[in-house]
């Protein structure tokens, strides 16, 4: 399976020796964000899908026996800040259990990072072993907690606990800092993975030997009043970002703060209450002294949406002016500037105007210009009204189970939007494989669920996974039949009449009696009113089935028991033949196209034959068939072979080739 950059970052965070992992390695708990914002997309792929694939790739790289578990939040209920679950306990590595758990989870709810951290620490501490946690989140706390304060409390409490944090597609450096502090307080590392290029580079780096840590040089940080030059008093929050990779390097507090940094270019921002400022600095082998001027006033900026109102989940063009400094971006916020659960943003460096995807929930919002050097402060805003979208779904009120249904729709047609069939009152995450992207046309062909019951067709916004409109419908039983005439013998053909949904992935065929729906012997796609099937190669009792192929798995819609009898076979040939001559053979038996009459060396397996010295049994006519003799003289046997399953010799005659 292809790994993504997140997998590389996780692998870097968790790299451990393979030997005696269970005994020597700390307990590891993976904590994954399954809040609704994980429906957001990077390069047209939902973040949840990228994360699933990354975790699956990571699981393959972990050493056998390494104590590993999985926790998730936001994956079961919407709007519930208590939705935190230990999905897989910390036990010796169970790859299958981890992969199943990750594949089954779907984003639904909020981002209770603090509560997840609290539960994770309690569970790991109870094991009385060294422990580490890896948190993957695409956003900040949305349940009122303070993960930084909790991380500091845990570290001060003496718990042998390290947290590594991966910020996934987080634009704001201030937002990054709000979760990076979890790592810094517990001695872990923070990574930021934002786009496909960075993910690819991270993946490449994870396959190479980790480079030695570059030498650090002393850097001091001080803040002064922009108006007077006097030192700023009171709490100051610093953020240091690598200017090239845009990776958050460190967060620290206080005036006259100090740390060591490798040589390179950095963006340093400082905030103190309402005052903010930032400066670009180069660190060399002499270190650096960073002085940031903090001011209450901010640069001039302006944002001008193309319209004061637009429909839900549509894309809105926004023109802007402002400092245009690297790291600045536009963002959709709540009416009072609050960050939304699903962050919609665009870099100002991409030029004015930019296109921003609006929330799927109608209401009052704002678009803001965010100034990076000012500690990600919003320095210009414009109100926007998100109005209800023009939405509709049309399909029959009743559909037979498993049949293909024509579904018409009307909606925003945004990137990643899709239609889905879900159980009545289900969420957009409950599609269970029954979905189609609206980009594929105004009328979509979708397979109905396999089980009768009450369902809904839903239009789901690709940017935040919200259901925008529902249309109820009922799935009724789908009748199906299979029938044939006459007795059945091994290795033959039988014409089977069928009725049923007739789906392109359905099949009519034989299966062992009582076998699961996914097992089969000979089969054919249901086309026309009947299909021709090869009968099983071994005599016995079987079932003839019509099997519906559905996203939930195969389902037997019709089945009839059958008995397949051994075939009567006759084979006669001259005792001696000339090498390379055409031999007339008397043959009677099952004439399925896979069966054959031909020469082989005595003692060879049932599938063996002499090249060019055989003929298909379907060419038997009036009890006779011609077969070319081998070109090399010697002792051979002429065989009648049934090959509708594993090849099986059912008759043989010794022949001398001269």
Describe the structure.
The chain is mainly β and 658 residues long. Residues 1-7 and 199-210 have low confidence and may be disordered. The protein has a 6-stranded mixed β-sheet, with helices on both faces. Strands 17-23-22-19-20 form a 5-stranded mixed β-sheet, with no helix packed on it. A 5-stranded mixed β-sheet has the order 25-31-30-27-28, with no helix packed on it. Helix 1 runs parallel beside helix 8 (196-206) and helix 6 (147-156) runs parallel beside helix 7 (173-186).
Mean pLDDT, nearest integer?
88
> What is the strand arrangement across the widest sheet?
5-4-1-6-7-8
Round the Cα radius of gyration to an integer and report it: 34 Å
The low-confidence runs, each spanning 5 or more residues with pLDDT under 50, are 1-7, 199-210
The tally of beta strands, per DSSP, is: 47
* Approximate shape: elongated
Major sheet description = 6 strands, mixed
- Which bin fits the share of residues in helices? 10-25%
Report the β-strand fraction as a percent range. Answer: 35-45%
What's the helix count?
8
- Helix vs. strand class: mainly beta
First-to-last CA distance: 57 Å
SSE layout:
Elements: H1 5-14, H2 21-24, E1 27-33, E2 41-42, E3 45-46, H3 47-61, E4 67-73, E5 84-92, H4 95-104, H5 113-126, E6 131-137, H6 147-156, E7 161-168, H7 173-186, E8 190-193, H8 196-206, E9 217-225, E10 237-242, E11 248-253, E12 257-261, E13 264-272, E14 275-283, E15 288-294, E16 302-305, E17 309-311, E18 315-321, E19 329-333, E20 345-347, E21 354-357, E22 363-371, E23 377-387, E24 392-394, E25 398-400, E26 404-410, E27 418-423, E28 435-437, E29 443-447, E30 453-460, E31 467-476, E32 481-483, E33 488-489, E34 493-499, E35 507-512, E36 523-524, E37 530-534, E38 540-550, E39 553-565, E40 570-572, E41 576-577, E42 582-588, E43 596-600, E44 614-616, E45 624-628, E46 634-642, E47 648-657
Helix pairs in contact: 1-3, 1-8, 3-4, 5-6, 6-7
